[in-house]
Specification:
Helices cover about 30% and strands about 40% of the residues. It is α+β, with helices and mostly antiparallel strands. The protein folds into two domains: about 1-30, no CATH class; about 40-135, GMP Synthetase, Chain A, domain 3 (2-Layer Sandwich), CATH 3.30.300.20. β2 and β3 form a beta hairpin. This is OsmC family protein.
């Protein structure tokens, strides 16, 4: 895997990985300028949620769960002092559908976090990660 990160101006960068999809990154923009990209720490948090989301949705579909929607809410706590690393994450999986089996959701999350999501496996060595889920009946 490779990527090219290019300074555009101030602390605004574009990142282009092998996929060719452009990702905008930015530290705090200068006074009076609109933010144009996510911070690297926001992207890290999004990567964790996105990685496990893809696993869980795929597993629930294989288990033939009648999903009509899916979301993850993620919260990350950071250390007060530099380097301001993440110390804790909490992910809430929100599964919407008809007759969703709670044990299927629990197992899908377990498989993702223990076996499939490489981002989770990496980050759990550096931060505490908690999960919970909510089922919304449609």
């Amino acid at each position: 895997m490779d990527a090219l990160i290019t300074l555009q101006e101030d602390l605004f960068f574009t990142a282009v990985p092998d996929s060719g999809v452009v990702v905008n990154m930015e530290s705090t923009p200068p006074e009076g300028k609109e933010r144009r990209g996510a911070s690297p720490m926001e992207l890290l948090m999004i990567s964790l949620a996105g990685c496990t989301a893809m696993d869980v949705v795929s597993i629930l579909r294989k288990k033939r769960q009648n999903m009509t929607g899916f979301e993850i809410r993620i919260h990350g706590d950071r250390a007060a002092d530099h380097p301001r690393r993440f110390t804790d994450f909490e992910l809430e999986y929100i599964v919407k559908g008809v007759g969703i089996d709670p044990s299927a959701v629990e197992r899908a999350i377990q498989l993702s976090t223990e076996s499939y999501c490489s981002v989770h496996v990496m980050l759990e060595k550096a931060a505490h990660i908690r999960t919970r889920f909510t089922i919304v009946e449609d």
